[in-house]
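User: Before I run my own analysis I want an independent prediction to cross-check against. Here's the chain; please return only the structure tokens and, at the end, one sentence I can use as a sanity check.
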Amino acid sequence: MRLSGYQPQYFPRLHYLNRLLNSDIFEISDYIQFVKKHAFLLPGGIQKRGKSFQAHSPVKLASGLHFLVIPLPDDLLPINKIKIKKDINWVNKHLGTLETAYSKTPNFRKIFPAISSLLSDNYSDLAALNTATLLLTVKFFITEKHANEITVDYINHLLAKQNIFRLKKIVIASQTSVAPPGRGKANEWIVSLCRYLNADEYYYGGSSDAAYMDPAFFKKNNITTLIQNWKCPLYRQQYPEVGFIENLSALDLIMNEPLSTRQKLIQ
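Assistant: Structure tokens:
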């Protein structure tokens, strides 16, 4: 039983969807501390700070790479405690940017109304918003049929019926009995999640590997570890004059390619 998990990201990137869809269970770490930037290692041991993507989502415009940014207070709180400013202007700005970016794509008319409806809802916190965008992107890798409400239960219902992806269930960390990790206790916390969800394999990315993963500790606890090794494939994008941009928000692939193609590419 393979488990993976990560903080909820705003319209998450393609590598996030690849890891999620190729796990048996995906855990959304909604009660983890919010950070605007993460530190990660480059080849050669060089450390770099980059966006955490908890409040950013990369899309492609005629000018090149562009980030949708959620305006947030400067509070140092868990993601599910960060309150979103009640200002519709940022929503309209994001919708306008997405329309500019993708209005000429093959799937814009089918996809954009669902995005507009989602962003028009009121969300109590950043985790709720990001989780909603995550669930919507997952849905568009399974079906393009309209749904009145996108919830974890609805997505899990779709996952249980499909046989395209390995993923069968999404869980919210704050809805389990596993407490958030203490400082420096990430490995112990993940092992507790594995035990709670009956997982004997943990699937994780390179940034986690560089930051805190201790494979020996997992082996001691009879859990196999597996590092994600996925490269973003070429696919049809808008604005070829600025070149192909990899690992954008999954919305870019969803807008540009038919369902069967994006299912194949994300695997």
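Sanity check: Residues 215 and 255 are 38 Å apart (CA to CA).
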